[in-house]
């Protein structure tokens, strides 16, 4: 409200979002939504897929995604006209894990911090949430009157499914993890656990294993399920989800998602693991 028409919101759909998420974002913030925003959706899926082709190393993937984000923003800024500032949703854990928070080492470069290219064609990058943890950001959102449905959405990294797919990213792998993750989130919500677990998602491992479906041998991917409880997302413990819920999730994934014959549950805390797989 304070910024008014000085702000243009550029939503970059990089093809690495959760199932149907691009359309959901546009529905809320686009011209048909309740907010009067200058909203631009850029469908850059193929552009990101081309850049990520053949890339397996996590840090390299993050930096490619970070640079491509900036290049898309720069291109859109030129179309708009005189744009001096780029506003990002960087939060404090992004800064710490990118090795920019005092004594901390680089754990993983976040696309909006350590993953930024050396040259950025804006006068200044503004990061109003840079010193806040995720739980504090949610408090700010509630104070500003943002609907709870949006405030308490599951955390999602900027590189998206690019870092929930171990190894090379392909459109086929994206489809697998989108479908598996949608099933997982649906069953967690049905069980009434969606507000009691800090973060939960499905990831696609780079491992294939032998299975049997019907009378046929299969050699397909293993999907890993992750769920953690945490206050500040700097440390976390694996959530103890009831076996019957995990069983329903696993059964649905192997029966409904093509090219998956095994489902694993990650019970590692942070540390030693990070919440995301890459």
UniProtKB/TrEMBL annotation:
Pathway: Purine metabolism; GMP biosynthesis; GMP from XMP (L-Gln route): step 1/1
GO cellular component: cytosol
GO molecular function: ATP binding; GMP synthase activity
Entry keywords, A to Z: ATP-binding, Glutamine amidotransferase, GMP biosynthesis, Ligase, Nucleotide-binding, Purine biosynthesis
InterPro entries: GMP_synth_C (IPR001674), GMPS_ATP_PPase_dom (IPR025777), Rossmann-like_a/b/a_fold (IPR014729)
EC number: 6.3.5.2
Gene3D superfamilies: 3.30.300.10, HUPs
Stretch forming the signal peptide: none
Pfam families membership: GMP_synt_C (PF00958)
PANTHER family: GMP SYNTHASE [GLUTAMINE-HYDROLYZING], GMP SYNTHASE-RELATED
Protein name: GMP synthase (glutamine-hydrolyzing)
Organism: Candidatus Eubacterium avistercoris
Originating gene: guaA
């Amino acid at each position: 409200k304070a910024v008014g028409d000085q702000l243009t919101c550029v939503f970059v759909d990089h093809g690495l979002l959760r199932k149907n998420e691009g359309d959901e974002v546009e529905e809320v913030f686009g011209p048909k939504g309740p907010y009067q925003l200058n909203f631009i959706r850029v469908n850059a899926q193929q552009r990101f897929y081309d850049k990520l082709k053949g890339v397996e190393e996590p840090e390299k993937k993050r930096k490619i995604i970070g640079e491509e984000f900036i290049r898309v923003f720069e291109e859109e800024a030129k179309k708009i006209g005189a744009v001096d500032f780029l506003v990002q949703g960087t939060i404090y854990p992004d800064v710490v894990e990118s090795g920019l928070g005092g004594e901390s080492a680089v754990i993983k470069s976040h696309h909006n911090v350590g993953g930024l290219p050396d040259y950025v064609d804006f006068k200044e990058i503004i990061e109003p949430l840079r010193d806040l943890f995720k739980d504090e950001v949610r408090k700010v959102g509630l104070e500003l009157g943002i609907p709870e449905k949006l405030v308490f959405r599951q955390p999602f990294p900027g590189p998206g499914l690019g870092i929930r797919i171990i190894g090379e990213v392909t459109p086929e792998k994206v489809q697998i993890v989108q479908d598996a993750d949608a099933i997982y989130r649906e069953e967690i919500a049905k069980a009434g656990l969606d507000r009691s677990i800090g973060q939960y998602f499905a990831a696609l491992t780079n491992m294939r294993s032998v299975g049997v479906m019907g009378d046929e041998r299969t050699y397909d991917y293993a999907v890993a399920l992750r769920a953690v409880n945490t206050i500040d997302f700097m440390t976390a413990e694996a959530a103890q989800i009831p076996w019957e819920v995990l069983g329903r999730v696993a059964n649905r994934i192997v029966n409904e998602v093509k090219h998956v014959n095994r489902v694993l549950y990650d019970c590692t805390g942070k540390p030693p693991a990070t919440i995301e797989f890459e």
